Amino acid sequence: MALKGGTRFSVRFEDVFPAGCMLVPDSIVEAQDYNEATRTRTPAVDKLTGQRVWSVRVSDMDPDLAGRAREVVVKITAPVQPVPESSAPFAPVEFEGMTVTPYVGQTGRLTYSLRATGFRTTPAPGRTGK
């Protein structure tokens, strides 16, 4: 079976963020596409669904990342900008409908792009309820 470039593989949130992740405050923005020929930016549109794309920055809480960069971008495909249920800074979140797309970056190293269909805030560790 041949896979085309840009293939999205379904993945569970727990497999990507086993220790969870926290929403970076004020980090939900409309993703932009850059056109090299015209040197202009336009709002990104998902090639599979035709919906708008939003970039969400989160901090990966994996303790194995101590001393390394923790910030990760997850792109959400949705007709309107997603809004977190909690206004608390660095609220814990879980993504729904996650996919991963592996690709070779400009440095020649294997990297990947994360996408989701939505997210929800979750109770902070040690707390019950919302």
Could you list the spans in which at least 5 consecutive residues all have pLDDT below 50? none
Q: What's the SSE pattern? A: EHEEEEEEEEEE
Helix/strand-derived category reads: mainly beta
Mean pLDDT: 89
- Number of DSSP helices? 1
Percentage of helical residues?
A: under 10%
Could you tell me the radius of gyration in angstroms? 16 Å
How many structural domains in the coordinates? 1
Morphology: globular
Q: Would you report the number of β strands?
A: 11
Keywords:
two-stranded antiparallel sheet, nine-stranded mixed β-sheet, 130 residues
Task: Please explain how this structure is put together.
With 130 residues, the chain is mainly beta. The protein has one domain (10-121). 3% of the residues lie in helices and 40% in strands. It contains 1 helix and 11 strands, in the order βαββββββββββ. The protein has one helix spanning 13-16; strands at 9-10, 21-23, 29-30, 32-35, 40-43, 53-60, 71-77, 92-96, 99-104, 110-116, 118-121. It is globular, with a radius of gyration of 16 Å. The N and C termini lie far apart (45 Å).
In short:
The chain is mainly β and 130 residues long. It has one helix at residues 13-16; strands at residues 9-10, 21-23, 29-30, 32-35, 40-43, 53-60, 71-77, 92-96, 99-104, 110-116, 118-121.
Q: What secondary-structure arrangement, pairings included, does this model have?
A:
Blueprint: E1 9-10, H1 13-16, E2 21-23, E3 29-30, E4 32-35, E5 40-43, E6 53-60, E7 71-77, E8 92-96, E9 99-104, E10 110-116, E11 118-121
Parallel strand pairs: 7-10
Antiparallel strand pairs: 1-9, 2-6, 2-8, 3-6, 4-5, 6-7, 8-11, 9-10
